[in-house]
Amino acid sequence: MFDILQYLPAKRKQTSSGWISFNAPCCVHNGESPDKRQRGGLKVADDSWSYHCFNCNYTASFLMGRNLSFKARRLLQWLNVPQDEIERVNLESLRHRSIEGIAAERRQITQRLMNIEFEERDLPDFAEILTPKKGLWKYVEERCLPPDYPYMFQEHEHISRWGLVVPFTHDNTVVGHTTRYIDGRKPKYIQDAQPGYVFGTDLQKESWQYAIVVEGVFDALCISGLAVLHNEINEAQSRLIRSLEKDVIVVPDHDAAGLKLIDSALEYGYSVSIPDWDSDVKDVNDAVCRYGRITTLLGIMENRVSGKIKITMSRKKLERKIR
C-alpha cells in the first residue's frame, strides 16, 4: 500500500482537524516564491488523500479505485516520488476498480454537473436551422466559427431584424441563446442567459487537461472554450467551471473590460494568458481569424502565467497596451 506521508518534508505539523501542514512544493511551479510558511496541506483518510496549497491554490486528490489524475501525478513528482512508484500506485488503484465502481464514477461525474441545474428554455420565434445553403452562412465563415455547431437564424417576414442564433446548452439541453444581429443596428446582441450559466461546458472533453475561459460566445466557439458572457466571473460560474476538474486558463479581451476578467481570475486562483497579439486584435475570435486556431491556442498556452505576482505583472502590461 502506498504511503504518501513518507514523501512529505520532515518539517511538518498536524492540526486537530487532521490536516498535515508543510512547505508546499507546488508554488515554485506556479509562478510563486518557494513556500517557507508551511502553507501546503494534506489530509489522509483510509485509501484516499486530498491536497490544497493555501498560497498558490493548487489542489489535487486521490481515491483508490480511480486513475491518478494529472494534478495528482504532478504533486507526487514534486514530492520526489519515483516515477515507477507512481505507475505502481496507479496500477494498484485500477485493480481495485470493478464494473460497479466504474459505473458509480460515471454517475458521480454526471451528478456533479446535474447538481448545477438550469431550466429548459425556448429558442426565439421563427428560428430555423442554419445550413451552408443559407445566406447567413457566409457570416459564420467570415467570423471563423466552427461549421459543426447547431447554429440557427432568424429571417422571417414577421420579424423586423434578422441574425445568427447561437443556442446555449447545458448537459445537451437548450437553456438559453444569444442572437447576433447583422443589420448594423443596435443592439448587436440580444441574450437569454440564466444566472450562473457558462457557455461551452458541452464542448469540453473528459480527456482535456485545460479549460480556457473567455468573455464572448464567438471566442469560445473558435477554440472550444468556455464563455462567461461578460467581463467578470461570479461565484456560481466559478463553481460550474471547477466542477469540470480542469486547469483553468483565463484569456481576457485586450481592452479595459478585460482587466476586470483578470481580477476575477486572481480572485478564484485561475491562470491567465495574455498573448502578444497585433494592436488591432482585441479578442480570441479576432486572433483565430488573423493567425488561425492552432497558432492562437499555442500562443495561449505559451503565455499562461500563474500566481498573483506574475498575473499582476501581465495585467499591468495589458493596461499599458490599451491606454
Per CATH, the architecture of the largest domain is 3-Layer(aba) Sandwich
Based on helices, strands and strand pairing, what is the structural class?
alpha+beta
Q: Approximately how much beta-strand content do the residues carry?
A: 15-25%
**Radius of gyration, CA atoms, in whole angstroms:** 22 Å
The oligomeric status of these chains comes to single chain
The portion of residues assigned to helices is 25-40%
DSSP strand count: 15
Shape: elongated
And the CATH topology of the largest domain?
Answer: Dna Topoisomerase Vi A Subunit, Chain: A, domain 2
User: Uncertain runs with pLDDT below 50, 5 residues or more?
Assistant: none
What's the number of structural domains? Answer: 2
- Quote the distance from N terminus to C terminus: 58 Å
Order of helices and strands: EEEEEHHHEHEEEEEHEHEHEHHEH
CATH class assignment of the largest domain: Alpha Beta
Q: What is the average per-residue confidence, as pLDDT, rounded to a whole number?
A: 88
Count the helices. How many? 10
Give your account of this protein's structure:
The chain is α+β, with helices and mostly antiparallel strands. It folds into two domains: 4-97, no CATH class; 127-322, 3-Layer(aba) Sandwich (Dna Topoisomerase Vi A Subunit, Chain: A, domain 2), CATH 3.40.1360. 33% of the residues lie in helices and 20% in strands. The protein is built from ten helices and 15 strands. It has helices at 70-78, 83-95, 99-114, 137-142, 217-223, 235-243, 256-268, 284-291, 293-302, 308-322, and strands at residues 12-14, 20-22, 40-45, 48-53, 59-63, 127-129, 152-154, 163-170, 173-181, 189-192, 210-214, 226-227, 247-250, 271-273, 304-305. The strands form three sheets. A five-stranded antiparallel beta sheet has the order 1-2-3-4-5. α7 links the parallel β13 (247-250) and β14 (271-273). α5 (217-223) crosses α8 and α7 packs antiparallel against α10 (308-322). 29% of the residues are buried.
